Amino acid sequence: MMYRWLADAVVVVHLAFVLFVVLGGFLLRRWPKLIFAHAPAAVWGVLIEFAGWICPLTPLENTLRARGGQAGYEGGFIEHYVIPMLYPAALSRQTQWVLGALALGVNVIAYFLAFRGLSRRSASLSQRREDTDGLS
After folding, report:
1. Which of 22, 28, 35, 122 could pair with 114 as two cysteines, CB 3.0-4.6 Å apart?
2. What is the pTM of this model?
């Protein structure tokens, strides 16, 4: 039973990582220093898709499921709803390229918006300093 819970935890972490890779760039406007975690994660996620590699979390989950005596993803919420999102049945190289391109595109947009917001904020701060300096 413990191995099944650990495998389910790996799936939840995997899903959270995928969501962070795809959508985490939008958090940069609020937390700019998050770029140090998001940029490598986004590069890794896109590279996994473009290169056709297998994420290390997948064999870890499968090993835990095998040790827990499970052969597949039957039963429970995680097995029924979350796993098909991470491991679609019709996952082909072409689908992986599309997923990689989507992740890359979303991140390009997110980074553009984040840097535009940061540059506006920086310009606004510079303008305030100039206005304050002119008053003294």
Report:
1. 28
2. 0.70
